[in-house]
Design a protein that fits this description.
Distance between the termini: 27 Å
CATH architecture: 3-Layer(aba) Sandwich
Number of helices: 8
Structural class: alpha/beta
Number of domains: 1
Oligomer: single chain
Bound molecules: ligand Z5A
Number of strands: 5
CATH topology: Rossmann fold
Order of helices and strands: EHEHHEHHEHHEH
CATH superfamily: P-loop containing nucleotide triphosphate hydrolases
Strand order of the largest sheet: 2-3-1-4-5
Shape: globular
Helix content: 40-55%
Radius of gyration: 17 Å
């Protein structure tokens, strides 16, 4: 039985990591199939090196600042490695994988944020993923001003977090367009809500979606507690 790829998307500070970890803990208490977590960039050894190249704030001050198309290709390389080395083998074993960011991030950040050709990015995503799409995507939608305020309180911002507000607003608009194009796969959550309320909402959705997919014989009964 093939597994399930569940992705958490949104701007910085939207609460993706918080909700992904909470959902993983809950699912592990409910299911007998492996529940794994991963992220992009950085889900593999190569990915961790690409992640530090992509997000290291020192790049910003260098003359050889990363060009938008180079950035796009680095994210694609990270994804290709992640899909081949981690996602596909584990999904083939029937795992449920919760992933912090996937293909929609590239469309939102490099397509809408950097204003690179969206159709070209769709083609690149298809190459990098070999056709592996998310089964379900939670989009934590938040005003970028609030998201950036949350992460500023956390500490020094990374290279992308230092982009101007209108960049983050374009990214959010990108997620909006994607959610309209994929209403079955992408579920919008109002990320201004309290973390506990969001957690409950996500559980309810997972309960419905996964009960439809998972075979009773190897899953315990998903419950709301
Ligand atoms: N990127 C790209 O451009 N193209 C691509 O293809 C891909 C990625 C795959 C990855 O950085 C960067 O790469 C990202 C996009 C780009 N841009 N940046 N920067 P990352 O993985 O380091 O950063 P992130 O994904 O944006 O994560 P984040 O900044 O940590 O945000 P988050 O995971 O959504 O939020 P969080 O860590 O769960 O919470 C942030 C803070 O808010 C924290 O203090 C929480 O306690 C607090 N929080 C969480 N939930 C709430 C609620 N509900 N209310 C109040 N406060 C909350």
């Amino acid at each position: 039985m093939a597994g399930q790829l569940i992705v958490f998307e949104g701007i910085e500070g939207a609460g993706k990591t918080t909700q992904l970890q909470r959902a993983a803990t809950w699912l592990r208490s409910q299911l007998t199939v492996p529940v794994l977590t991963s992220r992009e960039p950085g889900g593999t050894l190569l990915g961790q090196q690409l992640r530090s190249l992509l997000l290291d704030v020192r790049q910003q001050d260098e003359q050889d600042e990363i060009a938008p198309r180079s950035e796009l290709l680095l994210y694609a390389a990270d994804r290709a490695q992640h899909v081949e080395q981690y996602l596909k083998p584990n999904l083939a074993q029937g795992a449920i994988i919760l992933c912090d960011r996937y293909t929609d991030s590239t469309l939102a950040y490099q397509g809408y944020g950097r204003q690179l050709d969206v159709e070209l990015i769709q083609q690149l995503n298809a190459i990098a993923t070999g056709g592996l799409t998310a089964n379900l995507t939670f989009w934590l939608d938040l005003d970028p001003e609030i998201g950036l305020q949350r992460i500023t309180e956390r500490g020094a911002p990374n290279r992308l977090e230092r982009e101007a507000l209108d960049f983050h607003q374009r990214v959010r608009a990108g997620y909006m367009a994607l959610a309209q194009d994929h209403p079955q796969r992408i579920i919008r959550l109002d990320a201004i809500a309290a973390a506990d309320d969001l957690e409950r909402e996500i559980r309810t959705i997972l309960q419905t979606r996964l009960s439809e997919k998972l075979c009773e014989s190897f899953s315990k009964k998903l419950s709301n507690n």
